[in-house]
Design goal:
236 residues, alpha+beta, CBS-domain, two-stranded antiparallel sheet, 6 strands, elongated
């Protein structure tokens, strides 16, 4: 990255922050103050903050004498990664587990078959699909709730999940939370949703289901779990 390219990228980040904070051109605010005020998760990382603080110092130095310093290759790589996350953030559709690769079941799947999928894959939550829409979630507690909801209930492992439809909760689940997000939502926005449940001391959000506009009535495109996001960020 040339010094000029660095300055252009830094200016783009500055503009991006001003747009987020809705700052008119007449209002002066330091770059570090804008980073501090931003609500985006990418700016909350201490590692990213240090890179951006160093970038601000370098920008101030180069603003007066463009050729006074040469950008180190390791800093170039680190700054480029942060800049990419800010200016072109990853979105759900880019990193979700796609529908074709999701371990799912239907209302016609037997209890025995659903349990076998969970045992084989070690997934604790299986989306229940009808007409390509996620209409419920089967997990290890489903049978417990089915028995608790019914005064009398006789179940066989050969019964289909249709018999459990009333307790295939997507909302108002006693122990779990699920949410729908748009395919265009950024990973930072989705990570913030997972974190917000922890901050509220609410039931943990287990996974998010990706659709076109984040509506349950839409075709399921894929899903993301907290573990998916951790893996993505660790290798970013």
């Amino acid at each position: 990255m040339s010094n000029q390219a660095f300055l252009q990228t830094f200016k783009a980040i500055e503009l991006d922050l001003r747009v987020e904070l809705k700052l008119p051109e007449s209002v002066h605010m330091s770059f570090n103050e804008m980073v501090y005020r931003s609500n985006r998760r990418v700016f909350k990382s201490q590692y990213h903050q240090e890179i951006l603080e160093n970038a601000a110092q370098l920008r101030n130095l180069l603003a007066h004498k463009t050729h006074i310093a040469t950008i180190d290759a390791s800093f170039y790589n680190a700054f480029s990664t942060v800049a990419r996350r800010i200016l072109d953030p990853l979105r759900a559709e880019q990193r979700m587990v796609r529908f074709a690769d999701v371990h799912s079941v239907s209302l016609h799947t037997t209890i025995e078959a659903a349990k076998a999928i969970m045992d084989r894959t070690h997934f604790s939550h299986l989306p229940v699909i009808k007409d390509d829409q996620c209409i419920g979630m089967f997990n290890r507690a489903t049978l417990f709730y089915a028995v608790a909801e019914a005064a009398e209930l006789t179940l066989s492992v050969h019964d289909s999940l249709e018999r459990l439809r009333a307790v295939l909760y997507l909302t108002d689940h006693p122990d779990y939370q699920y949410a729908f997000v748009s395919r265009r939502d950024t990973l930072d926005e989705i990570a913030e949703r997972f974190s917000s449940y922890l901050m509220q001391d609410a039931l943990h959000l287990q996974l998010v289901i990706v659709t076109e506009n984040g509506k349950p009535s839409e075709t399921m495109l894929g899903l993301l779990t907290p573990e998916d996001l951790i893996d993505i960020y660790m290798h970013d």
